[in-house]
Design goal:
The complex is a heterodimer of chains A (109) and B (557). With 109 residues, chain A is α/β, with parallel strands linked by helices. Helices cover 28% and strands 33% of the residues of chain A. Chain B is of the alpha/beta class and 557 residues long. In chain B, the strands form four sheets. In chain B, strands 1, 2, 3, 5, 6, 7, 8, 9, 10 and 11 form a ten-stranded mixed β-sheet that branches. Classes of the chains: A alpha/beta (109), B alpha/beta (557).
């Protein structure tokens, strides 16, 4: 999409989850985002971001590093389609996605 | 014997008589009633060069017909006016400066006109005396800024000139009292002239002239927030406010700022608040405009009383049907009064909660932005500790104890403190950080040559900073360093937040100065819009039993 920025992040370490089905939370709408979490080979956590807001790479890195520090999950690939969500919404959606794949109860929108 | 009329001690009164005599000579003036097409001539007869004039511009109600008329007077006859008015909202409020009719201004708030006001100031078209809070400006009406002529708005008048100001009484009593009792002249525009008023809000002998305006006075619905636009993050922050502050302190009396953050709190009381068993224990008495978002809490029996600064379009019938809650006249309609409600909000409320655009690391906050001169209206009075308060309440005492515990000498003298909460998402729209190292206010002060940076709420009045990341209790901070780290510790991923000293933030968490949602027993994943007692305008109408009638622009069905 025109004007989109693509960012790639990879974090090492963490624990692997039992096998899980991919989970999708959120919506692609203004101020919101969609997060898809899938199993992936390897021992890391790979996160690809497509965002409509250009120039916020440093904040994405901080938000995603914090996410990885919080959950420490390995063997996953996360795809994010962002339409200008704030870091607060990004963190919330990521937490919802992790709840969904780890079977932890927690509301999903 | 000299009569009072020609006494050197009654010059203002004889000057008033001259003005009234000039007006009485006009063809379109019939005792107190003035034909609409005579209004410009009336103003030219009444107003003298250099006069201090109050053109009623309230937060909501506008004397728009009189404002238009004032732009049409001859600048050769009427010039160098000193305008004193709380809100600059209409283009005409500034046109008079452009036209050379007025040149000096004292005011409180200029939101919609803030850009043009800054431009006119830069062009030298006007001088600003000062930017005030509402109460401060009303206070000066009785001290050194008493209007010579006031141009006000009412809903209806009778033949004698009694006025019915109705739900949007707002600033009118304060303006008229200051003018009428200091030999000034009061002109009222009214929507209609009737034989019998529903009630008398302003007695006829305080009013000199009444003119029926061709159109009803403009009233802006400022306090309507569509619940459909409330985000999950706002729900989360509202949960934190209710559980982490309202319940913690047992807040009984309060004022909410304008905005979606506080609307979310109002909509969570009957759901989340109920679940926490807080009904009857918090939020019983309010200084608040009739917010539509408060309807579900009122209907659920949470609210004992609401006193209002002004009204809100569409809430008239609902208010009329709930006189046990709202202040209403014998006719049934709301009586608002900005001066009294501001005093009530300042002295009689345990808590103020509102939002801001920017907060610095000392906790100073401001909505002032570069190139605009906006002022803050009532926020500085709501969001300030009432140093003159002497009556105790549990919330006020607890806040005071937390602030003074262990302090020596005069700083440790026991007293209470108002809870002043700033509720902000760390990033605003377009990823603008709410937390900054330096407020734009400093640069603005330099640009506009102000004596002080325009700070809305001073950091030493702020007791809690609430963001999606947590609550920082500044009452518990014992020095500037702790205060700074407490603020950085809830400033999220903003540059200011990322500069936190992590070790110190953890120490502040251990002491309960910073509390995260998890420490409050709140799971952010539970913060869904399903918790809102109303999720749309239509839900609000339904909750009111059909009594609330939203303005057309808020109806999408």
């Amino acid at each position: 999409m025109a004007g989109m920025e693509t960012l790639h992040f990879a974090f090492d370490g963490g624990r692997a989850l039992p096998p899980f089905a991919p989970a999708l939370v959120g919506v692609v709408a203004s101020g919101n985002l969609e997060v898809l979490v899938e199993p992936a080979p390897g021992t890391g956590c790979r996160i690809d971001v497509d965002t409509s807001a250009r120039g916020f790479g440093a904040i994405w890195e901080a938000v995603l590093r914090d996410f990885h520090d919080r959950h420490g999950i390995a063997g996953i690939a996360v795809a994010i389609h962002d339409m200008g969500a704030t870091p607060a919404v990004v963190s919330l959606r990521l937490d919802q996605a992790i709840s969904a794949i780890s079977g932890v109860p927690g509301a999903t929108p | 014997m000299t009569t009072v009329a020609d006494s050197p001690w009654a010059r203002q009164r004889s000057n008033r008589a001259e003005r009234l005599a000039r007006a009485a000579a006009l063809a379109g003036v019939h005792a107190k009633t003035v034909d609409a097409d005579t209004i410009v001539a009336l103003l030219e007869a009444l107003i003298e060069p250099g006069d201090r004039v109050c053109l009623e511009g309230d937060n909501q109600k506008q004397a728009d017909f009189l404002a238009r008329a004032l732009t049409q007077v001859s600048p050769a006859r009427v010039h160098d006016l000193h305008m004193v008015q709380s809100v600059l909202s209409l283009p005409e409020h500034l046109d008079i400066f452009e036209l050379g009719i007025a040149n000096r201004l004292d005011f409180s708030f200029s939101g919609p006109q803030s850009l043009r006001l800054a431009q006119l100031l830069a062009e030298g078209k006007l001088q600003i005396g000062a930017i005030h809070t509402y109460l401060e400006l009303f206070g000066r009406y009785f001290i050194d800024l008493t209007p010579k002529v006031s141009l006000i708005a009412a809903q209806a008048a009778d033949a004698q000139g009694n006025l019915y100001t109705g739900p949007n009484t707002e600033d009118t009593p304060a303006i008229v009292e200051a003018t009428a009792f200091k030999s000034g002249v009061v002109v009222a525009q009214v929507d209609e002239i009737v034989d019998r008023l529903p009630r008398i809000d302003i007695p006829a002998d305080w009013i000199d002239f009444v003119v029926k305006a061709p159109e009803p006075a403009f009233i802006e619905p400022l306090f309507t927030r569509d619940p459909a636009q409330i985000s999950e993050i706002q729900v989360l922050m509202a949960m934190m406010a209710i559980k982490g502050i309202y319940a913690e302190y047992g807040v009984q009396s309060l004022n909410h700022g304008i905005g979606f953050d506080t609307a979310a709190i109002e909509l969570l009381l009957p759901t989340y608040g109920e679940r926490l068993g807080l009904k009857g224990k918090i939020c019983r008495h309010w200084a608040l405009n009739p917010h539509p978002a408060l309807i579900p809490a009122i209907e659920a029996g949470w609210v004992e009383s609401v006193h209002s600064f002004g009204s809100e379009l569409g809430m008239e019938d609902y208010v009329r049907a709930r006189p046990d809650v709202f202040f209403t006249g014998p006719d049934g309609s709301l009586r608002s009064n900005r001066a009294f409600c501001q005093a009530a909000g300042h002295y009689a409320c345990d808590l103020f909660i509102g939002s801001t655009l920017q907060m610095d690391m000392a906790g100073n906050s401001s909505t002032a932005t570069l190139g605009r001169i906006a002022g803050f209206g009532g926020a500085p009075n709501m969001g300030a500790d009432a140093r003159g308060r002497r009556h105790a309440s549990a919330a006020w005492l607890k806040a005071g104890r937390e602030a003074r515990d262990g302090l020596p000498g005069v700083r440790g003298t026991p007293r209470g403190q108002k809870l002043v909460v700033q509720m902000v998402e760390t990033f605003r729209e377009h990823m603008q950080p709410a937390f900054v190292e330096t407020l734009d206010a400093w640069q603005l002060a330099e640009q506009a040559k102000m004596p002080l940076p325009p700070i809305m709420i001073y950091g030493d009045d702020v007791t809690h900073v609430l963001t999606e990341e947590g609550i920082a209790n500044l009452l518990l901070c014992r020095d500037d360093e702790e205060r700074e780290q407490a603020i950085r510790g809830v400033a999220g991923f903003t540059p200011a937040g990322q500069k936190r000293d992590r070790a110190m933030v953890e120490k502040l968490r251990a002491r309960g100065v910073i509390r995260r949602p998890a420490e409050l027993g709140i799971d952010p994943r539970d913060a869904t819009r399903n918790l809102l007692a109303a999720r749309s305008m239509r839900d609000l109408v339904r909750a009111s039993g059909g009594l609330y009638q939203p303005p057309r622009r808020f109806r999408n069905w």
